[in-house]
């Protein structure tokens, strides 16, 4: 059965390449800002390119924050890409006009990478945790990154004596270790661009689409 995926259109992001990449792995894809379509789809992809505050402002202008909240409250899958990962955290130190606070789905701050050369641009390996569903079959592959800011510390959520599974964190390194991906129940996100990561990125998107049951 073909899975319906909405790529959330809020004025920022690599939307066309994301749509094409999802279509190539078999999803039925719609690019839209329509709330009803975004809530009812099997999966929602939140893209993001640019400054944290501006992306966040564009997302909240169409009610994207409440769309993400509603979906996650019902256990409906969401995938964030690049700044679409960053805005899932509480805040960022990146300067810029817009909404400074993120969606707060995860605790943490997006900070500038302490590297000699930024942005971090190009192909890098990642360190996924054992049992990652998102990285199944591509654990040792390289993925394409373009970013100057990242989450460098992930504060684990209070899981109430272990009754809720801990998030699975994938790490990479550029000047410092940083969060390359998070898998946390219905909410997943990658700092890299799977739609620009060749066969490895296609397999990662296929893994996500296949999980939309």
Distance between the termini: 9 Å
Largest sheet: 7 strands, mixed
- Beta-strand residue percentage: 25-35%
For the secondary structure, the number of strands is 12
Number of helices: 6
In the predicted model, the low-confidence regions spanning at least 5 consecutive residues are none
Mean pLDDT: 94
Which outline best applies?
globular
Element-level helix/strand string: EHEHEHHEHEEEEEEEEH
Strand order of the largest sheet: 2-1-3-4-12-11-10
Task: Please state the CA-atom Rg, rounded to the nearest Å.
Answer: 16 Å
Helix content bin: 10-25%
What structural class is derived from the secondary structure elements? Answer: alpha/beta
What does this structure look like?
The longest helix has 13 residues, at 198-210. This protein has a seven-stranded mixed sheet with strand order 2-1-3-4-12-11-10, sandwiched between helices. It has a three-stranded mixed sheet with strand order 5-6-9, with no helix packed on it. The protein is built from six helices and twelve strands. The chain is α/β, with parallel strands linked by helices. The termini are close together.
